[in-house]
Amino acid sequence: MSAPQEALEYVRANRERYLSELKEFVNIPSISTLDEYKADVQRAAEWVAGQLRSLGMNNVQIMPTAGHPVVYGEWMRAGKSAPTIMIYGHYDVQPVDPIELWTSDPFRAEVRGDYLFGRGTSDMKGQVVASLKAVEAIVRTTGLPVNIKWLVEGEEEIGSEHLGDFIKEHKKMLACDYCLNPDAGMIAPDKPTITTGLRGLAYFELKVYGPDKDLHSGLFGGTIHNPAQALIELVAGMHDKNGKITLPGFYDKVRKLGRKEREDFKRLPVTNREIIQMTGVPALWGEPQFIPAERVGGRPTLEVNGLLSGFTGQGSKTVLPAWAMAKISCRLVPDQTPEETEKQLRAYLKKNAPKTIKWELKNLHNAGAALTETNSAGVQALAQALQTVWGKRPYFKREGGSIGSVVLLQKYVGADSLLSGFGLPDDNVHSPNERMNLPTWYKGIEAFTHFFYNF
Ligand code: BES
Ligand code: MN
After folding, report:
1. How many angstroms separate the alpha carbon of residue 159 from the centre of ligand 1?
2. What percent of the chain stands above pLDDT 70?
3. Domain boundaries, the chain
4. Closest residue (by CA) to atom 16 of ligand 1?
5. What are the residues whose beta carbons fall under 8 Å from the beta carbon of 434, sequence distance 6 or more?
6. Is the minimum distance from the CB of 40 to ligand 1 under 6 angstroms?
7. Over the stretch 310-338, which tens digit does the pLDDT of each residue have?
8. Which of 85, 255, 284, 404 stands 20 to 30 A from 372 (CA)?
9. Could you tell me which CATH class the domain 5-198+369-454 is placed in?
């Protein structure tokens, strides 16, 4: 039996156990943004470290950062001439609210039909376990043909705030040829995908203050600028009628899409109808001169993530609120930077905020935009692996999400990320009823198994 074949047989023989271990991992509520889950976040790190130890990885450590810890482990016995592949993952997940929209407990992973439901199944505990289990199959059969290093963080969903310092500090330990990063998904179950770009992110909280306490709206309405109104006036002015962002200089550094790039976007098998169906909106929105795939993969945005002000309980209360708050974030493309974006937003506020209110802007977190190589030996090994399992060449796609580590590894380690995971657009990531398609996941484990032998 050929080497990959032996490992593939192992994968097939162990599917049930692989799934039950994934369930165990999903059942740990490792929500990185909420303080009350801190112990669970730690437990998830320990779960990953336990897996690495049982795989016989060396130097397995749960390494502290100023936030949640990083799990590290390595296997460097393939020799100096073999490549070193880092495997990146995150063990943290998003909050689950609104909880009442979940059909089953988000932290009691449940199989229904072809899907495993639970927070983090797709983003990205399923992807982490897929890489662990591909490596397990190789370790338990032929042994690893490459050196590997694991970097599994606990702050991806909150902007990888402390990962930059960590990587900078441990550059040597993290030296590698490529980073396999399965935190990006596929276009469809029958369309294997390699992601070749991610947008950056600059995330803000904008607070507008009016009177020093909530007031009777009859006694004071008409003499005082309502902060909720002032805030939405400011927010509304951040786009013009054509959906263009009005922050001064916002588009100055936006790299233009070339002709070849636009042709690639056009060739992607994504239709407007599908997006409408998946999201339930009556019609699409956005810059008319770009198709949706371009608007997501190659154009920047400014979004309101949430608004809060005044009385929002049952019934009515005639009140003029003391303050109003908006969570605002920009998705960025090369060559924009979060730092410049913050300056542009401040300039906009200075220019447009009325004298009747005070405002305060906080930058919560940032991630850089990234493009990755499309022609390296690593990409070829990955493309070949996907082709072997799916029987067709993968699609190459620039995605709209952000992953902090990609730019950080390019910058400090000089390693490019190979972005490919097995999540699907309708997995409800960050939403209620997150799920992962199991047949696709099993194929993914086999694809990663091939990947390591392809070097
Ligand atoms: N897996 C996603 C990133 C992603 C989404 C990649 C869609 C490709 C397509 C990741 O877990 C994520 O959600 N990241 C956050 C990062 C942010 C907090 C800096 C995001 O994009 O909102
Ligand atoms: Mn996510």
Report:
1. 9
2. 100
3. 5-198+369-454, 200-272+286-367
4. 402
5. 106, 117, 118, 119, 120, 121, 122, 123, 427, 428
6. no
7. 999 999 999 999 999 999 999 999 999 99
8. 284
9. alpha beta
